[in-house]
Amino acid sequence: MASDIGRPRKASNSADTKKRLTRAAAELISSGGIQAVTVRNVVRRSGLSTGTFYHHFANKDDLLMYFVKTESFCDKKLKSPIKNISDRIIELYMCLIDRYKELGLDFMKCFYTTDNKALCAYMGEETGEFLPDTVMFRCEEEIKKAIAAGILKPETDAHLISRDICTIVKGCVFEWCLSDGSTDLCKCMKRILKNYFTPLTHRTV
């Protein structure tokens, strides 16, 4: 009978396997920074095979995306009333920004790049629609509610507005990364989004 000594045990199920890979990545980030996260290092640290890695993640960026997508934005409870739509959208996106800041500047500088296909897919569209559970999807739903309530002008294009807001936020994050964190990310985003919503408001509320 062949001996199993020295062979990494298979995880009991797919979820366990994925957890081992993400835990290995988290340990590498903790000990060596974001630069230490490579497919080879994650595989070695987790005791799993390269094939197993690619079964769960397309590449390193896809793995790092796991740390950004912590929960569904559709479940987020917002305190700002719909009549204050700009504050409500800012509050929604602050959930994402807070997560970015929690991950840290070094993480985001390596992650927020034009070459990151996982980020482009997540912060983009699929067949003209935002992916369910994303911040853009929730944003569009909130914009639609504001239009229906007469807060925003009836001719407002909810999808286009949501795309614009996503672009604004991505620009603020890039500026934060480019400035090595010297830009006040939260203040910058809030100011620009407030100004963006002003001409869209149907009436003073």
Overview of this structure, please?
This protein has 205 residues and is mostly helical. The chain has two domains: 14-57, Orthogonal Bundle (Arc Repressor Mutant, subunit A); 73-200. 60% of the residues lie in helices and 2% in strands. The chain has ten helices and two strands. The protein has helices at 14-32, 39-46, 50-56, 60-68, 85-103, 105-111, 117-122, 135-148, 158-178, 185-197, and strands spanning 125-126, 129-130. The chain has a two-stranded antiparallel sheet. A hairpin with a 2-residue loop joins strand 1 (125-126) and strand 2 (129-130). The radius of gyration is 20 Å and the shape is elongated. The termini are far apart. Mean pLDDT is 88; it is low at 1-12.
**Shape designation:** elongated
- Number of DSSP strand runs: 2
The total domain count is 2
Radius of gyration: 20 Å
Give a short account of the largest sheet: 2 strands, antiparallel
Overall pLDDT metric: 88
Widest sheet, order of strands: 1-2
Q: Please give the share of residues in helix.
A: 55-70%
Name some characteristics of this structure.
Arc Repressor Mutant, subunit A, 205 residues, single chain
Short structural summary:
This protein is an all-alpha fold and 205 residues long. 60% of the residues lie in helices and 2% in strands. It has two domains: 14-57, Arc Repressor Mutant, subunit A; 73-200.
